[in-house]
Specification:
The complex is a heterodimer of chains A (112) and B (112).
Chain A (H helix, E strand, L loop, with lengths): L2 E3 L4 E5 L4 E3 L2 E3 L5 E7 L5 E7 L5 E3 L5 E5 L4 E6 L8 E8 L6 E2 L3 E6 L1
Parallel strand pairs in A: 2-12
Antiparallel strand pairs in A: 1-4, 3-9, 5-6, 5-10, 7-8, 8-9, 10-11, 10-12
Chain B lengths: L4 E3 L2 E4 L5 E6 L6 E8 L3 E9 L2 E5 L6 E5 L5 E5 L8 E8 L7 E2 L3 E5 L1
Parallel strand pairs in B: 2-11
Antiparallel strand pairs in B: 1-3, 3-8, 4-5, 4-9, 5-6, 7-8, 9-10, 9-11
The chains are: A mainly beta (112), B mainly beta (112).
């Protein structure tokens, strides 16, 4: 079965600084990969997804992620963080059967 | 299109009781998945329904069950509630088998 590791539980960045959130997955075949964001008390919002093709995917809110098969990684990046980006971010991997596995999440704090 | 809706948003029950949660997917989506989110275990997959049939099931006891109606609305039932069932229960709908899931705001269940 597929699994996901998010090595960083909590990250703090200054507003305007760049951001990279790490995600490593384990799956035998080509996975479906996702990043979601969750604000406190809310559901999850899909930021971006990768199925195939171009390994650099663009998402909403200025986020992008790069799929690196050799490293089994799908890291999320943003060139300039805004205070409103403070939230919890989840990486997820699917096998095409709507049974997704989520990472433990990375909580992002943005300093003014 | 309206998003995924879940009712109720908040629920307080006592041990031993049972509870039913409801989820209305995005119009046209035939797949509905349920997840349990707790601080300790994170996001865990409960089950997925497609066209009124359970297709996938996570590793939860039989006290957790669900069903889907012909209009794709889904209900989740938990019987004989335990303190550990306190969690945010998230429902997600998907239009296809690419794991692109859209989440509702969740139902916060507290078991006393």
């Amino acid at each position: 079965a597929q699994s996901v590791t998010q090595p960083d539980i909590h990250i703090t960045v200054s507003e305007g600084a760049s951001l990279e959130l790490r995600c490593n997955y384990s799956y035998g075949a080509t996975p479906y990969l996702f990043w979601y964001v969750q604000s406190p008390g809310q559901g999850l919002q899909l930021l971006l997804k990768y199925f195939s093709g171009d390994t650099l995917v663009q998402g909403i809110k200025g986020f992008e992620a790069e799929f690196k098969r050799s490293q089994s990684s799908f890291n999320l990046r943003k060139p300039s963080v805004h205070w409103s980006d403070a939230a919890e971010y989840f990486c997820a991997v699917g096998a095409g059967d709507n049974d997704m596995r989520f990472g433990a999440g990375t909580r992002l704090t943005v300093k003014p | 299109k309206a998003g995924v809706t879940q009712t109720p948003r908040y629920l307080i029950k006592t041990r031993g009781q049972q509870v039913t949660l409801s989820c209305s997917p995005i119009s046209g989506h035939r797949s509905v998945s349920w997840y349990q989110q707790t601080p300790g275990q994170g996001l865990q997959f409960l089950f997925e329904y497609f066209s009124e049939t359970q297709r996938n099931k996570g590793n939860f006891p039989g006290r957790f069950s669900g069903r889907q109606f012909s209009n794709s609305r889904s209900e989740m039932n938990v019987s004989t509630l335990e303190l550990g069932d306190s969690a945010l229960y998230l429902c997600a709908s998907s239009p296809d088998n690419t794991d692109t899931q859209y989440f509702g705001p969740g139902t916060r269940l507290t078991v006393l």
